[in-house]
Amino acid sequence: MTPPPFAHQLGLRLIVAVGAGLLAFSAVAGFFSYRYVYAQELAEAASLQRQLVQTVQAQAEVAAFAANAEIAQGVLSGLLANPVILAGRIESAEGFRAELGSRTSVDFSASQSYPLYSPVDRIEPVGRLLVVQNDEQVEQAAAAAAVFQTLLMLAQVVIATLIVGGVLRARVIGPLTRLAHAMAQIQPGGAQRLPIEERHAGDEIGLLARSANSLLDTAEAAIIEVNAQRIELEKLATHDHLTGLPTLRLAEDRLQIACGNAHRNGTKVALLFIDLDEFKTVNDRYGHEAGDAVLREVARRLRECIRAEDTAARIGGDEFLVILGNLPEAQTAATVAGNIGRALARPIETPGQTVSSGASIGIALYPDHTGNVEAMRHVADQAMYRVKRSGKGRFAFVDDEATPAP
């Protein structure tokens, strides 16, 4: 499975952010490091020059005091042995002068001056020692040392960046990427949960996984509850809340299906329109509680009288429909209607009394009585009212006389 793009982006952003931070730090630190090392190198060159002067100062004082050119030349030769010294001069207060340089023309105006004192009392000034430093060489050496130190520090920063990037990838980005892959594979409402690695059980990544799992549990519970509510709402929309039988809406859908199958198979469909006799009397005399008990018992008896593939539905207060599909002949519908009539004629026990009701049943056949599915209920209803007028407790096809339930 291709990793989600954001996983790569997150890793890249973390590494770039850390690298940019370290590079910014190294740039600032490199600037100050260069200046510091450069100044240190210049200071060390100046300190070296002073040390060299201190080494030959006593001889230079003798040369100036005695105006001895030979001693002066020896002192200056010793100074110029160091490549950072470009030229030197010994001058006395009496006008003596001796100089030596590695170049033919040297400007002593930028020289460093060191006072020379009498070798007798070390108090009386007798002259001075002028030293011209090879500034170009000193600055080049200082710059080279500063560049080396700066590059060394930058190399350390780059190595540190690589190490930090590797640690971030192994300890943060890798676990987060695996977590992202696992989350991408989880289906809403599924049982799969995010794995929690043992080494991350106590850190923020483990906390993130546990929090995500908790949200998934909550979402799954919500989905289950919503589905249950949806199923219940669908049932309420298609089933009668008192008897549990399908409502007219569902019955009409099943009638359409049954008639379609009958048309293809060359069979018949019977629609039985059932109206309870004397139900209003039961309600008025014994109350609605008794009436509800009668309706529930009627629904139970209707289920017992039909096959599992048939449908019994309550469509109104005391009106019911029964759909009998895939019938080979009309007589089968008459047989079932007779069974239903006898079943509903039996006394019904209600809270506190026993009541009797009975039913009038009208039957419409498809395609015998009508080829119009929408008209079948009206046809069966007409047959039922003809039964009512002829004495109740009977059943009849739309085109026959009412037949009493045997």
Q: What key attributes describe this structure?
A:
six-stranded mixed β-sheet, alpha+beta, four-stranded antiparallel β-sheet, 406 residues, Alpha-Beta Plaits
Can you offer a commentary on this structure?
With 406 residues, this protein is α+β, with helices and mostly antiparallel strands. The chain has two domains: 5-137, no CATH class; 248-404, Reverse transcriptase/Diguanylate cyclase domain (Alpha-Beta Plaits, 2-Layer Sandwich). 59% of the residues lie in helices and 17% in strands. It has nine helices and twelve strands. It has a six-stranded mixed sheet with strand order 6-7-5-10-11-12, sandwiched between helices. A four-stranded antiparallel sheet has the order 2-1-4-3. It has a two-stranded antiparallel ribbon with strand order 8-9. A hairpin with a 4-residue loop joins strand 1 (85-92) and strand 2. Helix 1 runs antiparallel to helix 2 (69-80). The model has no long low-confidence stretch (mean pLDDT 83).
What is the fold's blueprint, element by element?
Elements: H1 5-66, H2 69-80, E1 85-92, E2 97-101, E3 112-117, E4 125-133, H3 135-185, H4 204-238, H5 248-265, E5 268-276, H6 279-286, H7 288-305, E6 311-314, E7 319-327, H8 330-345, E8 348-350, E9 353-355, E10 359-366, H9 373-390, E11 394-397, E12 403-404
Parallel strand pairs: 10-11
Antiparallel strand pairs: 1-2, 1-4, 3-4, 5-7, 5-10, 6-7, 8-9, 11-12
